[in-house]
Amino acid sequence: MKYLKFIVVLLVLTVITACKDNASHKVSEEESVYKCPMQCEGNKTYAKLEACPVCKMDLVMVENQRTKSVADDVISDESIFNLTTTWHTEEGSTVQLKDLKGKTLVMVMIYTTCKAACPRLVADMRNIEAKIPKDKLNDLQFVLVSIDPKNDTPARLKAFAKENFMDGEQWTFLQGTESGVREFANVLAVKYKQISPLDFSHSNIISVFNSGGELVHQQEGLGVDNKETVDSILKLVQ
After folding, report:
1. Which end of the chain, N or C, is surrounded by fewer C-beta atoms within 10 Å?
2. pLDDT tens-digit profile of 93-116?
3. Distance between CA atoms of 66 and 107, rounded to whole angstroms?
4. Is the pTM of this model over 0.85?
5. pLDDT in tens, 174-199
6. 114 annotated to a ligand binding site
7. Where in the chain is CATH 3.40.30.10?
């Protein structure tokens, strides 16, 4: 009798395990995406594992949506998206840095009343943009962060963007709090000091971040050769 009970329990466990495996397999299939290995229809994907309607080859799985979703939500300890400061854009919107997640970021710190270094930094940013293929610009965000949040209001930043032909969707200007700006500058190793009501001394650094907010490259100086900067960006947007 004891052995009979053991066999019954074993059979029940086997059935439960099989059901779980089938359910797991079904969920996995539903979350997977497939496409033709020959790319007959470009990047078109299918929800089911079947044959390509063009070449009749079996489709191959290219990603699992659940895995991708989890990965997309992960922020590393080195990411600037861990900073929780609130910023205002030139459009008057309220954002946090994590709202920029998903795009390669090219960032620089300036102030709009600067007559010396900042115009050169702005020119350097536009020169970098000019070397990026047009079809890659949607994967990029050029971000200019003001070190003078008292004077660089969203309205002033918007006017500055228009004056410098930087009012396209790939350009974003940020005004923060004094403490938030200082915190962000420390992360980028940018040093700045106010030397008069409308004048600052500051580092001249352009920083490149991957889509997860991790620093991958910095360009220091004014009017320098930007080949390494452009190459680092192109590697991230391939």
Report:
1. N
2. 999 999 999 999 999 999 999 998
3. 31
4. no
5. 999 999 999 999 999 999 999 988 88
6. yes
7. 80-237
Name residues whose C-beta falls within 8 Å of residue 43's C-beta, 6 or more positions apart in sequence. 35
Is 19 part of any known ligand binding site? Answer: no
Scored b (16 or more CB within 10 A) or e, 80-103 reads bbebebebbbbeeeeeebeebbeb
Question: How far apart are the C-alpha atoms of 72 and 135, rounded to whole Å?
Answer: 23
For 98, which DSSP code?
A: G
Task: Please check whether residue 141 is in contact with residue 133, taking contact to mean a CB–CB distance below 8 angstroms.
Answer: no
Question: What are the structure tokens assigned to 3, written together?
Answer: 């052995």
CA angle centred on 77, ends 216 and 217, rounded to 5°: 10
Which architecture characterizes domain 80-237 according to CATH? 3-Layer(aba) Sandwich (3.40)
Number of H helices, E strands in the chain: 6, 11
Q: How many other C-beta atoms lie within 10 A of the C-beta of residue 115? A: 8
